[in-house]
Specification:
Elements lengths: L17 E4 L2 E4 L3 E2 L3 E8 L3 E4 L5 E3 L1
């Protein structure tokens, strides 16, 4: 039998949530107030949503 081909692993995109300015790390997105630090809210056209607990804020 032939071996199955494995899909390449996706790299982590955590570094896309931070920017470096003046030697300090700053977050681009707002963190979720229910889940705490490390869980970012997604920006949509008219709202911010948390993918983990489904918390939503209207803009």
């Amino acid at each position: 039998m032939a071996k199955k081909q494995r899909k390449p692993k996706k790299t982590s995109k955590v570094s896309n949530n931070y920017t470096v300015s003046g030697g300090k790390l700053e977050t681009k997105n707002k963190t979720c107030p229910k889940c705490g630090a490390g869980v970012f809210m997604a920006k949509h056209k008219d709202r911010l949503t948390c993918g983990r607990c489904h918390y939503m804020e209207k803009i």
